[in-house]
Design a protein that fits this description.
6 helices, 32% helix
Length: 203
């Protein structure tokens, strides 16, 4: 369980839109500069190079997780609203029934197309051992709780994420109620194409 008395989850808009001189974009940049994640450079690169711009353009929203005790950056996650297509053959009949409520079904291809919440980024901060102060499960729970808050206001059923095809990583997501439903080839200009595993969880 996420110990809410230990962590605070802050939408970075709080810094970008604040009139408080102590909470500005420069202050946010300073906080983000303290993040490091050698295990996944893409996670670090997104936070430092893209998260602010994406938030300003409403492409996604990034949330930082800070220690209540000393304000240390423990991790972050990013949520976006994305179109998603699910092939009927990859999910159970129970899931199909729920998808029908909020999707368009293509009878010919038996695919369900809908808007879904994407947990686009999720990463712990490995600077000075900050990663030891929060578990991956707690960080994912913080992201899930935020999605639930948004869903309460706007509706929706599906949350999904994409992960590298790594047994330990996929086991972690399975343990946290995300189920594999498909794979996707990346098309990034910055790196070689590779396969991502797509996993979903219903709200």
């Amino acid at each position: 369980m996420l110990q809410k008395d230990k962590y605070s989850v802050i939408n970075i808009r709080k810094y970008l839109e604040s009139d408080d001189p102590r909470l500005g974009e420069e202050d946010l940049i300073q906080i983000l500069s303290e993040f490091s994640c050698e295990k996944n450079p893409d996670v670090e690169r997104f936070l430092k190079k893209s998260s602010i711009e994406f938030t300003k353009k409403n492409q996604s929203i990034t949330y930082i997780v800070l220690s209540i005790d000393d304000g240390e950056l423990l991790g972050y996650f990013t949520i976006a609203l994305k179109p998603l297509t699910v092939r009927g053959e990859t999910v159970s009949n129970t899931v199909k029934k729920k998808l029908l409520r909020i999707s368009e079904l293509d009878e010919e291809t038996q695919t369900y197309t809908m808007s879904a919440y994407l947990i686009a980024q999720l990463g712990k901060n490995f600077t000075n051992g900050a990663n030891e102060k929060i578990t991956g499960a707690e960080l994912l729970e913080a992201a899930w709780n935020k999605v639930e808050e948004i869903q309460y206001q706007a509706g929706g059923v599906v949350t999904f994420l994409e992960a590298n095809d790594d047994a330990k990583l996929l086991s972690f997501y399975n343990d946290n109620k995300f189920v594999k439903f498909d794979t996707r080839q990346t098309t990034s200009k910055d790196q070689e194409p590779h396969e991502l595993v797509q996993l979903l969880r219903l709200l």
